[in-house]
Amino acid sequence: MERQQDIRQSEGWGKYLQSIGWKTRKTSKGILIAIRPSFIGNFVKIQHPRKIEKEDLEEIENICRDEKCAYIKIEPDFDQDLSIFEGRGYRPTHSPNCVPSTIFMDLIRTEDDMWAEFSHSARYSINRAIREGYKVTTTKNPPEERLKESYNLFHITATKKNFYMPPFREFLIRVDYFGDKSYLCEVRNKDGVLQSSKFCLGHKNMVLFVSGGSTEAARKNKSGYLLMWETMKFLKGEGYEVFDLEGKYDERFPFQTRNWEGFSHFKEKFGGTPIEFPIPMIKFLSKIYGTVSKLMKADF
Dihedral angle at the C-alpha atoms of 110, 263, 129, 165, nearest 10 degrees? Predict the structure, then answer.
């Protein structure tokens, strides 16, 4: 099980970033560099590039100097050789922009094999939701009105858990750029009332869980378990091989992943492979920013 490329390195993601105020550049090997313009110095994030090498770093640094960037922050992919950063002025930073850990679900396996990996409580909850008549639907390239209903649920859930939720406009932008590879998966009760929803984006052989939310009723009736199972089966049928559940609690980052234990426990009931990304690396091109970071012991 290996994803061919993280979605944050895709053309669609680059266009999405441009639409919300970022500038993007690409290296000769196609590594996406996201640059945030600022009057106090441009900032750079490079998220999960595939196995960058020393010549890639040299090209990245040259581009960032041309763009007058204050610093370069690279969030390496999970299998990156970190020795390439040695002797080049990079240091770890405990301020990730991406989730530092996640779970990959292997969709290549048979449905029976996936089901066998679920916890007893997950299987029981799925069967209960089926008996009680909950139904799951999946919509490609969801229309604005339908997406808005789920977004309202996302927003309520995020507010309760003190998570950041991007504005609705950003969801519409992503649907626009990813088209039929944007998916809205919903579970409703017998009366058609929305219980839980997931928004996902596909790229190459992977699909990313972007946002989700559940009502208080769904937390009691366990219909969210049925939604996860039916979503996995649907995405498998679409030909995807890796389902990135986007985030789990990480003891290396207790502040950034606070309040994540609940949904991490939910995700872990479906098995999968825990993925731990390396600590992000930062290099200051601005001496002022480098000095401030060192004196104040601040991460960017």
Answer: -110
Supply the angle between the helices 223-237 and 120-131 in degrees, to the nearest 10: 90
Whether 73 and 46 have beta carbons less than 8 Å apart is answered as yes
- Output the CA angle 158-222-162, nearest 5 degrees: 15
Alpha-carbon span 286 to 169, nearest angstrom: 34
Residue 138 sits in the same domain as residue 237 = yes
Structure tokens at 254: 């207790």
114 and 54 in a common domain: no
Domain coverage including residue 37: 7-98+278-296
Domain presence at residue 270: yes
Q: Which of 48, 3, 14 is nearest to 207 (CA)?
A: 3
Asked if the structure places residue 257 within a domain, the reply is yes
In sequence order, which ranges of 162-251 are alpha helices (DSSP H)?
168-178, 216-221, 223-237
Asked if residue 112 lies in contact with residue 287, where contact means CB atoms within 8 angstroms, the answer is: no
Closest CA to 205 of 117, 112, 107, 274: 107
- Give the pLDDT confidence of 81-116 residue by residue, as tens digits: 999 999 999 999 999 999 999 999 999 999 999 999
| 230 shares its domain with 192 | yes
Question: pTM of the prediction?
Answer: 0.94
Residue 43 contacts residue 244 (beta carbons within 8 Å): no
**Of 92-96, 112-116, 134-138, 295-299, which gets the smallest average pLDDT?**
295-299
Determine the Cα–Cα distance for residues 198 and 126; give it in Å rounded to an integer: 16
Report yes or no: 270 and 230 within 8 Å, Cβ to Cβ.
no
DSSP-derived 3-state class of residue 116: helix
Nearest 5°: the CA angle 71, 75, 77 is: 150
